[in-house]
Write a structure and sequence with these properties.
The complex is a heterodimer of chains A (207) and B (173).
Chain A: H1 10-15, H2 26-64, H3 76-102, H4 115-159, H5 161-166, H6 168-206
Helix pairs in contact in A: 2-3, 3-4, 4-6
Chain B: H1 7-30, H2 34-51, H3 61-80, H4 90-95, H5 109-116, H6 121-131, H7 136-143, H8 147-165
Helix pairs in contact in B: 1-2, 1-3, 2-3, 3-7, 6-7, 6-8, 7-8
Classes of the chains: A mainly alpha (207), B mainly alpha (173).
Amino acid sequence: MESNPSANDPKTIWRRQPGEVSKVTLMLIRQRARDLRARTRRELFRTAWALLPWAIFSIVGILKGRSVIGFSPGPDSSQRIAFGVALLWCMAGAWVYQRGMWDAPLPGDAGLETGIAFLRQEIQRQWELFGRWLLWVLGPVLFTLSVAVGPIVWFLATTNPKLLRNAIPFFLILTVWMVAMVAIRIRRRRELQREFDELAALEKENR
Amino acid sequence: MVEAVTGQDSAYLAAAEEFGAALDRLARAYEFDDEKRRDLLQEIHFQLWRSFAKFDARCAVRTWVYRVAHHVAASYVIRERRRFATLVSLEELENLADKDARPDTRLNLERLARLIQQLKPLDRQVIVSYLEDLDAESIAEITGLAPANVAVRIHRIKNVLARRFHEGGNDGK
């Protein structure tokens, strides 16, 4: 590939661009390694804190055998089991999803992988994250919400239906929010699938 | 406290010395914002340093460096794209009307970088490697595309550059 020496030659313009003023030093890289470990720890703590209210809520439910409003639509034992499942699912979900998010983005032998192979793996990883999100984030959130809100709805339906009607906008907003979240992720997953197919076709073409 | 320089460190330092400028340019192909680009560049260097712990000379250092750098940058694009417009392939870019209506006789770095940043990661790898003056065989080794496929893409790159920047017609023909 010969170079065009003219000032309007893309290669010349590209290669003569001004370089970065700040130099990346070994010290900076080591600092970044430490920052990465600290960030991972911070994220774990943040998740633990976010889980705390759910955990307290579920533990109270397990101990009392009924929801925090003191009303239970079913036997105490079934309520205890539901709160126990909610607690375990939330904790397991946080751990599994977190692990997926913080998996090292590059394996050690990344330099041996070609661009196509790496992209395919990366897209597949993102695609699988969606499955994890459904099972380990949306699943426990919906389940815990139904365990928490279910008795309240049931209580209102039997004692004060008018109040329940007033709460309909809240439930509507909650439903719209959840449907929108799922729709956005499904769209993103379709895009990823399309890109994955394109790369697979390209690899097939190369053989 | 000063930490001792290991074999991994010295391999990285040698690579950074030789390919540092190319990595700077590569980062520009993936991020226009100065601050974010600096961050991406640091991430590339960081991952490159990490990767040298496993480097066993099964491929050339240059291929290794470019692959790792493009992998980091491609991951970045996939992650960030949630907030950005859809990217296009070289083929689509070739058929896409330029926003600036008339082809410009000036070709500057900003326009070139913006053009590259419209592309999907794999096509970006090809165009950046082409601009770095790598031959088709090296580009094929880095990307995993067949040399014939690389040649087709380079032909498209030349067409796009010629049409957008009016720099001497279609030299691909």
